[in-house]
Amino acid sequence: MTRHVLVLGGARSGKTAFAEQLAIRSGSRPAYLATAEALDSEMRDRVASHQAGRAGQFATIEEPMALSDALLKASAHHDVILVDCLTLWITNLLMANEDVARAVSQLGATLVQLKTAKVILVSNEVGLGIVPDNAMARTFRDLAGSAHQRLAEICDDAYFVVAGLPITLKGEAPGQAESRIHEA
Asked: 35: annotated binding-site residue?
């Protein structure tokens, strides 16, 4: 059975490293679906650093907006797809004046129908801090929170990563499925 996963955490919490470990343990043909757009030199450096850190371990697919379509295409060639990250995807949609709620619904429907590849979604939990001081930031926070709730409902496993330590919110603890396989 394919178990989709949602990994949440704050900035620099270790959520991506945790998701990468899950992906590597979960499949033999992993893909890394990146939603970031390198629009300035700082972001280009970040992207290059991320790519260098996972060199040779993942096929890289870059898609800033059409996430559902990219997942369906990638599932034809990959048994696990790590999406990093949903909050950048939501930002990209907002900046393009796209309907974020509709895109999240489409992503949810894609996950429900996708049985050939495990999808691991990484996202920043942005709702734990102060209330933002402007309308756009509040809209972003609200859309991200709604997306996380909807996707956590669909995903079989959900984790919150703090200081590099994953906390199981829903489903199997990290490594639980692998230990059952080794015991058999």
From this structure: yes
